[in-house]
Amino acid sequence: MAQAVPNPDLDFRMAARHRANHTVIAESKLRGDTQILIINVSAHGFMIDDNPGFERGERVELRLPVIGRIEALVIWTSDNRAGFQFERVLRLPHFVELLKIISPKLR
What we know:
The protein has a six-stranded antiparallel β-barrel with strand order 1-2-3-6-5-4. 16% of the residues lie in helices and 46% in strands. By secondary structure, the protein is α+β, with helices and mostly antiparallel strands. Strand 4 (59-64) and strand 5 (68-78) form a beta hairpin. It has a single domain (14-102), classed as predicted glycosyltransferase like domains (Thrombin, subunit H).
């Protein structure tokens, strides 16, 4: 019986995603400095709304609170959204501290 080959893209999608509302500058060789709005984040990556034109395979560098400078790769785009994978998985203590800063505040 044939076994299914694991798809690494699907494994990342299984990571818990958390709502975010954080504007950051993404540095790209193709686009220079571009302001983006992160609307959800996981320890593996993040999603933006209002994609300024990033395309699959493009690399960006950004500076996140707690984490500092980190590179990310555009994994997918759809309509005005784009999903990015971090160059490395964020460590849990750092990720929890990041969430405290970039998550939308409840009123």
